[in-house]
Amino acid sequence: MRLTGLNFDAIPRLDVPIRFYLTAPLFAVIASGLLIWQGEHIWLGRWLPASLAITHLVAIGMMAMIMIGSLFQIMPVLCGAPIKIPPVPLVLMQTGLVLGTLALSAGFFGWPTFGASFLLLTLSLGYFIISLLSVLIRQAAGQQTRVPILLAALALAFVLLAGLLLLAGYLWGYQPITGKNLTHFHASTGIFGWVLLLIMAVSFQVIPMFHVTPEFPRYCRITLPLMLVIGLISIALAIVFQFSLNFSSALIAAVGIMYAVTGLNRLRNRKRKLPDVVVSYWQWAYSSLICGSLLMIALPLIPIQLQGSVEVFIALLIGMGFVLGVIQGMLLKIVPFLISLHLQPIAMSKPNAMMLLPDHYSLISRQQSKIQFRLYLLSMASIAISLCYPPVTASIGLLMMLNWLWIGYNIASASITYRRIHRAMLES
Predict the structure, then answer these.
(1) Nearest CA-CA partner of 64 in 159, 181, 170
(2) Is residue 3 part of a domain?
(3) CB–CB of 360/278 below 8 Å?
(4) Is 350's pLDDT higher than 80?
(5) Phi-psi category of 91—alpha, beta or left, where left has phi over 0 and alpha has psi -120 to 50?
(6) Alpha-carbon span 6 to 142, nearest angstrom
(7) What would the mean pLDDT of 395-415 be, rounded to a whole number?
(8) Once rounded to an integer, what is the mean pLDDT over residues 344-354?
(9) Can you tell me the distance from the alpha carbon of 328 to that of 160, in angstroms, rounded to the nearest whole number?
(10) Helices H / strands E in the chain, number of each
(11) Are residues 403 and 57 in contact, defined by beta-carbon separation less than 8 angstroms?
């Protein structure tokens, strides 16, 4: 396979992505605490204050935090163009993202913090989006990766704009679109535009590279992102002209199913059949996406009194099962890969240091990976059980907390190992 625009010389310092990765487990603990506190009340609907707070803690504090950190590494490797944000603005950007997300979540509980979140998220996310778009438009190479990432970045811009309009409604009563249509657009563009497009762009490259699978078919790499964009545009048009969103939602769900089925087929035909936790993560994540997408298509047929609970179940399946499943699995590959990548220049310049270069499993062991994956599976099982028996819903939060505390431990222990080996290599 080809990594068009490959440029390892432009990779940022290791602490740039790691600081974003280590922030996500902190938000996971907060979101898990709210899940434990709310318990079975979360099944009443996704419009409750606690549900909205949990959604944004996960979407911004966990998903976006890790995806942004990864983009600093992905762009030089896959597109040959680094995101050039100086150290001080980078710290300010992440600080604004952290504080803005906390302020937004507190605002849903009645705290007077929506104004602060409006300002902080505008500055932090807006600055990152402009920086990313600038690189993608002016410098990035490799059309197969560049175009989907560009579309994902544009989707993130629309997600931010829609979110700010919704905040303006809370703050000043400004509502350009009545009802919940703008909220639907905000959520759909976030999960199926920004998140799914970015996962598609990365998976088209890393699944064949890491797991020795056949390449994704050309029609898949081109057609599926295009159909996803058409689906999101149809949602926007349906909102403007007050049409039903059922067709648009079904189209987007169908794209999700086709992408997941293609991904499962690639993994089934991989040349290296050795057991791999990351492959299992992809398989479970794709299965969750298929189940969630099928329920999206069937939602209009479900009795109205059950639709609220089913919507929450869909959100948990796609959010925790698919998106966070992919993220967890990729972290097991990306963190050791990045550590090795940053140690290689020292090993090449100091022959005595070559023997100190760690392998993947000395950074995050197979046992650590298995524990992380089992906690993920238990979390998914708790979601299904809680839907059938709501009194045990708090178990979702408890298992999610344990899962992400373990992820934080894995990343932190690998980082400590890197510092120790880096010092030893310099002294050799």
Answers:
(1) 159
(2) no
(3) no
(4) no
(5) alpha
(6) 9
(7) 97
(8) 78
(9) 25
(10) 16, 0
(11) no
Going by C-alpha positions, the residue among 241, 238, 255 that lies closest to residue 292 is: 255
Contacts of 293 (CB under 8 A, 6+ apart): 253, 254, 256, 257, 260, 318
Residue that is written with structure tokens 């199913």 in the block: 257
Task: Count Cβ atoms below 10 Å from residue 137 Cβ, excluding itself.
Answer: 11
From the centroid of its chain, how far is CA 365? 23
Residues 182 and 162: beta-carbon distance below 8 Å: yes
2 in a domain, yes or no?
no
Gap between the Cα atoms of 184 and 163, Å rounded: 11
Cβ-in-10-Å burial (0-12, 13-18, 19+) of 241 comes to: exposed
Q: Read off the pTM.
A: 0.93
| Structure-token pair, residue 21 | 């990765």
Residues near 323 by Cβ (< 8 Å), separated by ≥ 6?
Answer: 63, 191, 195, 199, 285
d(CA 46, CA 50): 9
Nearest to residue 93, comparing CAs of 20, 183, 151?
A: 20
Contacts of residue 59, Cβ cutoff 8 Å, sequence gap at least 6 = 190, 191, 319
Asked, for residue 255, whether it belongs to a domain, the answer is yes
211, 247 contact by CB (below 8 A): no
Task: Report how far Cα 384 is from the mean position of its chain's Cα atoms.
Answer: 22
Among 37, 83, 85, which residue's Cα sits nearest to residue 57? Answer: 37
- How many residues are there in the chain? 428
* Nearest-angstrom CA–CA distance, 425 and 357: 8
Domain count of the fold of the chain:
1
Contacts of 95 (CB under 8 A, 6+ apart): 124
Name the one residue in this structure whose structure tokens are 């929506």.
114
Three-state SS annotation for 193-233: HHHHHHHHHHHHHHHHHHHCCCCCCHHHHHHHHHHHHHHHH
Question: What span, in angstroms and rounded, lies between the C-alpha atoms of 324 and 412?
Answer: 19
Query: Domain containing 81 — which CATH number?
Result: 1.20.210.10
Domain span at residue 265 reads 8-427
Q: What is the CA radius of gyration of the chain?
A: 21
pLDDT tens-digit profile of 284-306? Answer: 999 999 999 999 999 999 998 88
State which amino acid sits at residue 180: K
| pLDDT one-digit tens code per residue, 195-219 | 999 999 999 988 998 888 999 998 8
The HSE-up count of residue 402 (CA atoms within 13 Å, CB side) is: 15
Let me know if residue 1 belongs to a domain.
Answer: no
The H-assigned helical ranges of 241-365 are 246-268, 277-298, 304-316, 324-349, 360-363
